[in-house]
Design brief:
about 325 residues, alpha/beta, 4-stranded antiparallel beta sheet, 12 strands, about 35% helix, globular, binds iron/sulfur cluster, Oligopep_ABC_C, cell membrane, ATP binding
Length: about 325
Amino acid sequence: NAPLLEVNGLSVEYGLKGHALRAIDGVSFALGTGEAVALVGESGSGKTTTAMAIAGLLSPNARVSEGEVRYCGERLPIDNDAAMRPHRWSETSVVFQGAMNALNPVHRIVKQIAEPCMLKLGMSRGEATARARELLELVGIPADRGAAYPHELSGGMRQRVMIAMALACRPSIIIGDEPTTALDVITQAQILKLLGELRSQLNLALMLITHDLSVVAERCDRMMIMYSGRIVEDGTVAEIFARPRHPYTRLLIESIPNPANGKKMIRPIPGDPPNLVNRPTGCAFHPRCPSAMPVCTREVPSLERFELGHVACHLHRASQEEKVAAHA
Ligand code: SF4
């Protein structure tokens, strides 16, 4: 059986002042039904471009230069706006941050949830309104609050409305693009809990885009770390937290404040994130990597399999070769 979602060697470029800025470069992974995976990395690492490509929401100045996205084995026309229209929001949908900007201030929320049900599912206004009321209850808002306008709701309630809208066309995959940014800590926890509950209730695959590793540890089974447009590590959350293989992942995990051992401040990773117009040669992390070797400046490490996951680092390859030599 084909996986629910497959991304194969996907590269996306943006045209910017005469330059082609390659935001993602040869990204490959698969996602199974009901899986919860986090996409982690600094801003500019390619997380959002990956998500937008999967959801068919790339901006008009983006170009898919290589690769493909498949949903249940079928190749999606992600670079063709019109051909992508029937797929959009139906298979994969996105919960964005900042619900206030995404909701229409002059329409009642029940109407905003009902709209996609009419457009995409061909429901009558009455049917769509009934479904919108059900969806409101599903996300923990009493159906009668559907008559409210967005400004009459709290930030947490508005984000729940966004989740209801994302579920309207019965997708199999929900992407949360930093869905709790701008919310207070308690509301953040409630929204993440709701996403987790909906995932099990509706058997949804959940992809959380975040830079918050505590969210990853609590809410996801698997994590993919992105750096400079490439996936550098992919594995189970338990395994990566216990034994990060990529030096960047290790530094990210070490940077989390841990009051238990007296570490209260985030320790920033030394050096600057790479410039995408002029990426460092070889491994893009080499200017910041404490373990860099001469080969790292020349060759891009490929994402290779190890027992429980994948990692793209020459260090890992060197240690594998040593192991093979020791056994020969
Ligand atoms: Fe560091 Fe080299 Fe591994 Fe890149 S490939 S992370 S520079 S050791």
